Structures are given as C-alpha cells and as structure tokens.
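By way of example, we now present a protein record of this kind:
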Amino acid sequence: MFDLSQSPYLFKHKDISEIRDKLAQQLPSHAEITIEGEQSKIIRIRDGQWRGASLHLDYTSEQVQLTRIVYTIPSFGAKVILFCCSVVAVSIIVTLLLSAMIGEFVPVMGGLGGVAGFVMYSIIKAVVVMIISNSWSIDLHPAIENV
C-alpha cells in the first residue's frame, strides 16, 4: 500500500493518457475515467452513483507524480438523496420532540429541523466519503500500484 503523506507517488509511465489507459485495464469495466484540468491534471474516476475519486497529478518534473487522492460522491442525485433524507429525518425528530414538550402536535416546528438537517447531511456525507475511501482501497490502490 502506498502512502502519500510522506512524499508523492511516482508513476512508471510519463504520459497521462497512458496512465488512464492502464487504470482502465485494472479497474472494473463500468468505471468511467476522465482527464480534466489545464494547469494541473486530474484523473476523475466514477464507479456508479456512489463511488468517485480524483487523482491529482503533478507532471512538472520528468515523471508524473500522484500528489493526492480526493474521494467524492460523484452523483448529484446521490447527494440530493442524502440531503433530503437527513433534513426530513431531523425535521420529523424535531417536530416530535417539540410537539411532545408543548403537549400538542405542531407541524410547523419541523421547519426548525432544516438547519439541523443540513448539519446532519454534512455528518452523513463525511461518513459516506469515509466509506467510499475504504471501498476504493480494494480496487483503486492496487490499480495505482500496478500502473
């Protein structure tokens, strides 16, 4: 397993499109791999709606270096699902708690759950991104080491 905390990882190949092609051979066939960026190149890998990674490359020296990996939820739809579930769940909880404290059911209190729902979304998103990074260690990290 490679460690990016000490120094950048050096690829054996010097051409970024060749690195992309080698990654395409190593990763599952349904993974989408694109190259983006003008100044610094980024290889974006998307495996379905929930697993995404961005490989940030530095090619200013004679070799291509992997400086960092950023794990993401690549689909906007997946982010909307997480957001809606967290806001609705927290709004229901806030409505029930405040209605129980007041003694009568007041659905307007659910609006107070919006801000708390956004905070919950941020927490859930951080947990999902952590799960994504752990799941990529099975496929992506060996593929990078073989490139």
